[in-house]
Amino acid sequence: MDLTWHGHSTWAVESGDTRLLIDPFFDNPHTSLEPSDVADPDYVLITHGHADHIAHAGEFSDATLVATPEITGYLSEEHGFDDPIGMNLGGTVECGDVFVTMVRADHTSGLNTGYEHEVGMPAGFVISEQLPTQTTDAENTTFYHAGDTALMSEMKDVIGPFLEPDAVAVPCGDHFTMGPWQAAVAVDWCDPDYAFPMHYDTFPPIEIDVDDFVREVGATGNDAEAVVLEGDETFTIGGDDY
Question: How far apart are CA 91 and CA 223, in angstroms?
Answer without folding.
Answer: 30
